[in-house]
Design a protein that fits this description.
By secondary structure, the protein is α/β, with parallel strands linked by helices. It has helices at 3-24, 58-65, 79-88, 92-95, 120-126, 197-214, 236-240, 249-264, 288-321, 363-370, 383-386, 415-424, 447-451, 507-523, 537-554; strands at residues 34-40, 68-74, 130-136, 154-158, 178-179, 182-183, 219-224, 328-334, 347-349, 359-361, 387-393, 412-413, 432-433, 436-437, 461-465, 468-473, 476-480, 488-491. The termini are far apart.
Length: 555
């Protein structure tokens, strides 16, 4: 046998040995999965079918039925911090974005992803993944932090959000669009204008998937929808389907969502539905004209949810046609709870509200419905601000659990998505990059929960945003509204709707949890906080006078 024959023989033996080892080692059964993370913007906890909504979401329903649903998954309560936490696997202040994208002069509030963090894209890219993102970026674009500079091979992105139509006007109509690092016209022929955003982000992402397949690489795709964030707008044909369907009003619709949530096993029937806030009027107290106005606002919002769901179907079909669906983990979630900005009245401006030239905010009344059955909204650390749906679909590894008790109830958080990707991608999370120390991952892999093999260790979870703060240890949650707010204590096993404050009867526990939260806050760059901005007394007096004049005019 000559040397060439010996080499060939050795290769045959090696190959046969690999086959044998794989036959006894289940980790060899499947290639590293593709990962698609789909995040929507300003969608409430109960706004899709599997979580109690009356809005038809058949494609998300199918993903949930053939995958798993999480009942206690958490975000940070606000868009920028959530994006920072999801992308880096850190608490948002550790990544440099404790608030929004303004640099406030403190490490936790730099307004951009810092050099002490890495993104999922950077980690997976180094281990052979093709990485892509489409949609809303909003983690420091104005400071030079870009998708193409933080690990994404391909990207079609807005610096922030708010743009839904190619011909949109108004405050967000001037938003710039970037394709693979180059500014591109919104009406560029490659996008087949006119377009609606949910279609654009999905269709361009599918093109990026085709590139990954051509290169024979597993892919990571971060699809960051802009919908249903204000200004709320959608194709007229979709809006028309919902006009009149919200004349039932928020009181009755909330009770109906609550009943469906109990029936599905999502919530415990002993958790009391959070009462309608004092400043939200009873639906029946409104005039017919007011009811029609509010009905149309929610019809626009519902249309945006339908457009998202339609595109989830488009995404799944594309993966199936390319024989990629079985070994693709799809995660679907929201960046914060329903948005009560613009208050009780909301906004309903334009000749044709809902079109590309209008300005609609659904406001507090409908946000109260969006977050059924919880308290508070976006910005806050009560459950209505930080609880999100999470649907996971991965046919190669997930065994569906659709029975009433089939919810994954383990408390989980955005910080776990990085750890999951590192685990499933067999990737190496770095301790340092370019001479910068990288903060260790804060989360745990969701793989044991997804596959039903193994368990996640119990750990505390923490939150802070705009002085709102919370810590959860086991089923006990300490939460505060505002820097000067009083701490409230709840047992989430018996009272996840946060109706029974136990602080007065458990003062020692409050002290212990508060100290634990502060220790974390000092370590995670939550503290020191930037100094509060001084109010301009002249402007404050003028604003107060204007508000009084407006109030008198409405009486």
């Amino acid at each position: 046998m000559n040397s060439r024959q010996r080499i060939l023989a050795a290769r045959v033996v090696t190959a046969l040995l690999a086959v044998f080892l794989c036959s006894i080692d289940t980790s060899c059964d499947a290639a590293r999965p593709n990962v698609v993370v789909v995040m929507v913007d300003d969608m409430g906890f109960s706004d899709i079918g599997p979580y109690g909504s009356e809005i038809p979401t058949p494609h998300l329903d199918a993903l949930a039925s053939n995958g798993v649903r999480f009942s206690q998954f958490y975000n940070t309560g606000r868009c920028c911090p959530t994006r920072a936490s999801l992308l880096t696997g850190l608490y948002s202040h550790q990544a440099g974005i404790g608030w929004m994208t303004t640099d406030q002069g403190k490490p936790g509030y730099a307004g951009r992803l810092n050099e002490q963090c890495v993104t999922i894209a950077e980690v997976l890219q180094d281990d052979g993944y093709f990485t892509a993102m489409t949609g809303k970026w909003h983690v420091g674009f104005g400071h030079g932090v870009t998708p193409w500079g933080r690990g994404f091979d391909r990207s079609l992105n807005l610096p922030a959000g708010g743009l839904h139509f190619s011909n949109q006007t108004g405050s967000k109509g001037g938003s710039k669009l970037f394709l693979n690092g180059n500014e591109i016209a919104k009406d560029d022929d490659r996008f087949d204008p006119p377009w609606y955003g949910s279609d654009l982000w999905t269709e361009q992402g599918i093109k990026f998937v085709d590139e990954a397949i051509a290169q024979k690489k597993p892919f990571f795709w971060y699809l960051a929808h802009v919908a249903p964030h204000f200004p709320c707008m959608a194709p007229e044909g979709t809006i028309a389907k919902y006009r009149g369907k919200y004349m039932k009003g928020w009181d009755r619709l909330r009770e109906e969502r609550y009943a469906r949530q109990i029936e599905s096993g999502l919530i415990d029937e002993n958790w009391k539905l959070e009462p309608r806030p004092d400043d939200v009027p009873a639906w029946d107290s409104l005039s017919p004209e007011q009811q029609t106005r509010y009905d149309d606002m929610m019809a626009i919002y519902a249309a945006m949810i339908e457009e998202i769901d339609k595109n989830m179907g488009k995404l799944v079909d594309a993966l199936r046609q390319r024989n990629q669906l079985d070994n693709t983990l799809i995660l679907f979630l929201s960046d914060n709870g329903g948005n009560a900005e613009a208050g009780v009245s909301g906004k309903y401006d334009g000749d044709h509200p809902g079109d590309p030239h209008s300005n609609v905010f659904i406001g507090k009344c409908w946000a109260h419905l969006n977050n059924t059955p919880f308290r508070k909204y976006k910005h806050y650390n009560h459950e209505g601000g930080i609880a999100t749906p999470l649907i996971a679909h991965w046919p190669a590894a997930i065994k569906p659990t659709t029975n009433k008790g089939g919810w994954i109830t383990t408390p989980t958080h955005l910080i776990d998505i990085m750890a999951t990707c590192v685990d499933l991608g067999a990737a190496d999370y770095p301790s340092g990059v370019n001479g910068n120390r990288i903060v260790p991952m804060q989360g745990q892999s969701l793989k044991p929960l997804l596959t039903g093999q193994g368990e996640m260790a119990e750990r505390p979870l923490y939150w802070e945003h705009e002085g709102n703060a919370a810590i959860r240890v086991g089923d006990r949650k300490l939460v505060r509204q505002g820097v000067k707010g009083k701490w409230e204590l709840f047992d989430l096993k018996d009272d996840r709707t946060e109706q029974n404050n136990l602080a007065a009867q458990s003062p020692d526990e409050v002290v212990t949890l508060r100290k634990q939260w502060r220790s974390w806050a000092e370590q995670a760059n939550v503290l020191p906080k930037p100094p509060a901005k001084k109010k301009n007394k002249a402007k404050s007096k003028s604003a107060a006078k204007s508000k009084l004049t407006k109030s008198n005019a409405q009486k």
